[in-house]
Structures are given as structure tokens and as C-alpha cells.
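To the wet lab folks,

You asked to see what we're planning to order before we commit. Fair enough. Below is the target structure as C-alpha cells, and below that is the sequence we designed to fit it. If anything looks off to you, flag it before the synthesis order goes out.
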């Protein structure tokens, strides 16, 4: 056995001398193999990703409790125990879950329309120079426009209906989708586009097989930003447009405000924050997966 081991070691040494580059690559491959064995859902990785968030939540609650104990405007800022007890009580009622369902359906519909409209506009503007010169700057200007400024026009156009809210969601988030796609197309290497032409790809095939895959990271970043705009537009719309028979999250928050029930208002604000964080986390996870598959992240940090 010792002789066999020495022969194997000698063979590896001879191979390393004959081809040092191959030996170096083999060493790198072994490192990658070891790293690949680390399961992303292991207890260690989950703990490393969770404890900073729990620490931040604990710090916020601690500062909140200190402010409450100081006696500063206790009628405006109830303590964490009161708010979380109110939140737990609301979670036992059907009304809160109906409100979440209505709000999330509006968010999904409005965001889906924003993605379709923004992607079409971004695809056209990014490849048609006269169109880009005409409306390229207007897309960015619309992105900076506060969504709440559109509601008077939306209410006049659609009345106090769900369509008015969705209209403002689209106006608030579609420009981010378009800009994300435009930015992604701008950063595609020209040699890659020339290679597509050399291969005889049509315009549709170029978009499908070359431009869209190459611009995917920037496009996903644009989607993430668009979701943030859509969520804010939706919350503003539900506070302004109260529709009878549709107990949305914004309607619950408005009712708590009218009744000066600050514990209920803060509890609803926590629900809004948690929902926003969950959806944002899904986009962040998608972005991380895309970057990892394209070799844009360090395996050691994964």
C-alpha cells in the first residue's frame, strides 16, 4: 500500500512538472468543489443571514421602548407591547387578511402591467435612436415625478375606483422598468451585437437570444426599483381612494388615523413594512441567483 501511495504521489508530481498550468487548474477546481459542497440552506448560512436582521429589529424595538418609557408623547407613540398586542388581535380577524388580499391583488395587477408596458417602451427606445432622442429624457422625468401628483388626474379620468389606483401604479413604476432595460442594453458590448449580425440573427431573434439575456441583470435591478415605486404608489392611492366594500390595507390605515387609534395605525404600518420587505427579498434573491450563475459573485462569499 505504501508503494502504491508513493507511486501515485510520484505520478502527480511528474504531472505537475510536465504541465504546471494543469496542476494549478486542478487545485482551483478542488477549491471550487469544496466550496460547492456548502449547502446554501445550511443552519450556519441561515444563522449568518438572520442574526444581523434580528439584531437590527431588536435595536429598533429597544430604542422604541426607551422613547416610550421617557414619556415623550405617549398618546402618539404607544409602546411596542401595546402595538404588537394590537397586531396580534387584528391577525385573528378576517378583515386584515381580506385587506392584504385586496392590496396584493392590486399590486400584482399594477406591477404586471408596468412590466409589460415598461419593457415594450424600453425595448423600442433602446434600439431606435430617433425615438430615444425624442422621449428618452421624458422617461427619466416621469420616474422622478411624485406618484401622488397623478391622483387628481386619475380620479377625474377613472373616478374613485381601483382603475385609478392601478393607473397611478403603472405611471409610477413603468419608467423604472424601461430605464432598467435601456441601461442593460447600453452596457452590452458592441462586439456581441456585431457577432449577432454576423450569425444572421433577425431583430426579433437578436432581442430574444442576445439583448434580453445580456441585459437581464440591469433589467432585474430595474424591476426591483419599479416594485418599490409601485408599492409606494399603491399605498398612497389606497389612502386617497377609499372604495366601499374593499377593506384594503390603506383603508384600514386611514380608518385608524381618523379614529386616532395609533396602536392600530402603527400595527398596519408594520404589516406594510413586512410585506414590502418580503417582496424586496424575493427580488434580491433573484438578482443574487442571476449574478452567481453569470460568475459575477465571489464563490467564497456565497
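Sequence we intend to order:
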Amino acid at each position: 500500500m505504501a508503494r502504491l501511495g508513493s507511486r501515485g504521489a510520484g505520478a502527480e508530481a511528474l504531472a505537475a512538472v510536465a504541465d504546471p498550468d494543469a496542476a494549478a487548474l486542478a487545485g482551483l477546481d478542488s477549491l471550487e468543489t469544496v466550496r460547492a459542497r456548502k449547502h446554501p440552506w445550511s443552519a450556519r448560512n441561515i444563522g449568518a443571514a438572520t442574526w444581523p436582521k434580528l439584531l437590527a429589529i431588536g435595536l429598533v424595538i429597544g430604542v422604541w421602548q426607551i422613547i416610550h418609557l421617557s414619556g415623550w408623547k405617549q398618546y402618539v407613540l404607544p409602546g411596542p407591547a401595546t402595538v404588537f398586542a394590537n397586531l396580534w388581535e387584528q391577525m385573528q380577524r378576517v378583515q386584515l387578511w381580506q385587506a392584504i388580499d385586496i392590496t396584493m391583488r392590486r399590486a400584482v395587477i399594477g406591477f404586471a402591467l408596468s412590466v409589460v408596458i415598461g419593457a415594450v417602451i424600453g425595448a423600442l427606445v433602446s434600439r431606435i435612436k430617433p425615438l430615444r432622442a425624442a422621449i428618452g429624457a421624458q422617461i427619466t422625468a416621469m420616474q422622478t415625478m411624485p406618484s401622488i401628483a397623478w391622483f387628481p388626474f386619475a380620479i377625474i379620468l377613472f373616478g374613485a375606483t381601483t382603475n385609478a389606483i392601478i393607473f397611478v401604479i403603472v405611471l409610477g413604476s413603468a419608467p423604472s422598468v424601461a430605464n432598467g432595460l435601456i441601461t442593460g442594453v447600453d452596457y452590452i458590448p458592441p462586439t456581441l451585437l456585431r457577432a449577432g449580425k454576423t450569425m444572421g440573427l433577425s431583430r426579433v431573434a437578436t432581442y430574444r437570444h442576445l439583448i434580453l439575456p445580456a441585459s437581464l441583470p440591469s433589467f432585474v435591478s430595474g424591476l426591483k426599483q419599479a416594485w418599490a415605486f409601485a408599492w409606494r404608489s399603491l399605498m398612497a392611492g389606497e389612502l386617497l381612494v377609499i372604495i366601499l366594500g374593499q377593506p384594503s390595507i390603506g383603508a384600514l390605515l386611514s380608518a385608524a388615523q381618523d379614529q386616532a387609534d395609533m396602536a392600530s395605525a402603527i400595527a398596519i404600518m408594520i404589516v406594510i413594512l413586512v410585506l414590502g420587505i418580503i417582496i424586496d427579498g424575493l427580488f434580491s434573491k433573484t438578482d443574487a441567483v442571476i449574478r452567481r450563475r453569470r460568475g459575477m459573485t465571489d464563490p467564497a462569499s456565497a
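Structural context that might help your review: Residues 1-26, 28-37 have pLDDT under 50 and may be disordered. DSSP finds 13 helices and no strands in the chain.

Thanks,
Computational group
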